[in-house]
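ingest -> validate -> predict -> emit
validate: passed (alphabet ok, no gaps, 341 aa)
predict: started
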Amino acid sequence: MRLLVHEWCCSGGLSGADAALVGAAAAILPEARAMFRALLADARRVPELDVVAVIDEGLTLDLPAGIAPWPVPPGRELDVLAAAAATADAALVVAPETGGILARRVAAVQNAGGRPLACDPAFITIAADKQATALALAAAGVPVPAGRSLEPGAAWPPEFFRPAIRKRRDGVGGDGLLFIEPGTPTPPPAHDATRIEAFVTGLPVGVSLICDAGRARPVAVLEQVFDPATPGSYRGGRTVAAPAARHRAAWLARRAIAALERAAGAAARGWVGVDMILGDREDGRADRVLEVNPRLTTAFVGLAARSATSLVAAMLAPDTLPCPAAGLVPCAVDFRIGTDA
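emit:
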């Protein structure tokens, strides 16, 4: 079976016109490299796979042994992706959802007759918009922080309660994230459309799931670790210790994905990450879902290194997987990107 692996930053995206859409493009490159290499290494665990990697010809990458490179000339990333996808049995596409980047690449694979291991573009479009996501979740009874959208250049509403968070509506990797404390000066207007929302206290948790055919199977429930000096900068994760909290988070993540599937009229497929805050109430009434990431997340790097079996193989054949509440990676994990993952 021929598997194509495309990671936007490493596969020519940063050399194309869409790079200007991502404010944090340079900042996410280290995470992108780590994800790309982790995907390739994990795919090589499956002897039946013939793995092809789409690679920016101007980028120097140390690839795992046995990977066939498909070079991308400057400005040709989308064309090469479509051509390569037409020769493969399946394509793993990783890209930021900002500005429609991910949705366009998944559509390009589909239009070329390929099989993307990714969410439907209609699902991606809603998940990429943090305001649309919050509205879809709230309409389904999934708890979200109180908030509203602001158009580009709109002033901060003086009546909005603080502490609060402002984030770019289609941002990734903490792009445009701002924490506004009580008593601090009013922030200047943002250049992009944003969502502002009430700051929620509790445990930051990311649930990684593999989705297909209306089922979402948890891979792991991790407490998220961030760089304290850079808001929203993901540094790693550790397994949520309490079994009841893990079950609560997995249940809430599955509800969130189902809500977006109904709103989009389209399926979630492949790897999906759901970010949330687990509050201090055991009945879950203080929990809030923050966003749904319709793509591979950086948690994959640490989880793949600690999984007894290939997670790429799990994405290729999700219908054969069990649906354990504890996750497909049941062992305790604790990792930091760039250090031990």
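Helices lie at 25-43, 77-85, 101-111, 121-128, 130-139, 243-264, 299-306, 311-316.
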